[in-house]
C-alpha cells in the first residue's frame, strides 16, 4: 500500500473512532422507568377469636397532613353483642417491621354491626413514605 | 489492498463488540452510560386505605374482594399487584392503572373467596412501572 493510501485509511479510521468515542460519552437515555424507593405497602387487619371478642376489622383509611400521617379511620364489625369498650390501635411499621408510630382510640360500642373508630393523632408524627406496614388491631377492654 | 483493509475492519468490529458489551454490562446503572445524564425518577407508593368485603357477617366468613386507595409520587402507568393473605391461604389480583400523587381507588375481587380467619388478613399492594 502506498503512503498516501495508508494515511487516508488511517484518517478515516481515526474519524470513525472519534465519532464512536464522542457517541459513547454523549449518549443519553431518553426514557427511563422510575426506580422504586418504596414500591408498596401492606395493611394488617385484625380479627379476634376469643369467645368474648369475635370482632374483626373491615377497613382502615389514613388521613394525611401533607405527607405526615395525622389520623386514621377504622371500620370494624362488632360481632360480639353487648355494650362494652373497644380499644382500636393503628401501628405504623417501617421496612424492618419495627413500630415507628402509634395511634389509638378507645370508645364504648353498643349492639352488633359495623362500627367506626376515629384516630385523630399519631405519635410520633411520621411521613407516609416511611411507613411500609399499617397494622390495625381492635380489642375489647374492661374500660377506657 | 485487502490485506490492509481487513485488519482495520476486524479492529473496528472488535471495538464495536466491546462497546456493545460495555453498554450491556452497565445498563443496570444508568449513571454509567456515558456523560449524558438522564433524570431517573424515584417513586414512593402510598397506600392510603385498604378495605375488604366479605360474603356475610358470620364468624366463619370469607373475603370476596375489596378496595385499596393508591398513589405514587411519580405519575405513570403501573402494574399493581394486590395480595390478600390469611392463615387459610393467599390470593393475588393484578391490574394495570395510571397512578399519580392523587390517590386512585382500585377495586378487586378474589376468586375463589378467601376464609377470613383469626388473627386477621394482610392486604399487600405493590406497584411497578408497566
Give a verbal description of the structure.
- With 144 residues, chain A is α+β, with helices and mostly antiparallel strands.
- Chain A has a domain at 44-141: Immunoglobulin-like, CATH 2.60.40.
- In chain A, 17% of the residues lie in helices and 48% in strands.
- In chain A, strand 3 (56-65) and strand 4 form a beta hairpin.
- The mean pLDDT of chain A is 90.
- Chain B folds into two domains: 2-32; 45-129, Immunoglobulin-like (Sandwich).
- In chain B, 19% of the residues lie in helices and 52% in strands.
- In chain B, the strands form two sheets. Chain B has a three-stranded antiparallel β-sheet with strand order 1-2-5, with no helix packed on it. A three-stranded antiparallel β-sheet of chain B has the order 4-3-6, with no helix packed on it.
- Classes of the chains: A alpha+beta (144), B alpha+beta (130).
- Strand 2 (40-46) of chain A pairs antiparallel with strand 6 of chain B, so a sheet runs across the interface.
Which protein chains are joined by the largest interface, and how many residues does each one contribute? A-B, 50 and 53 residues
What level of helicity do the residues of chain A show? 10-25%
Number of strands of chain B: 6
Which residues of chain B form runs of ≥5 with pLDDT under 50? 30-34
Radius of gyration of chain A: 30 Å
The helix count of chain A comes to 1
Q: What is the typical, i.e. mean, pLDDT of chain B?
A: 85
Oligomer: heterodimer
- Report the average pLDDT across residues of chain A: 90
Order of helices and strands of chain B: HEEEEEE
Distance, first to last CA of chain B: 53 Å
Give the number of domains of chain B.
2
- CATH-derived topology of the domain at 44-141 in chain A: Immunoglobulin-like
Task: Give the percentage of residues in beta strands of chain A.
Answer: over 45%
**Structural classification of chain B:** alpha+beta
Strand order of the largest sheet of chain B: 1-2-5
Counted by DSSP, the helix tally of chain B is: 1
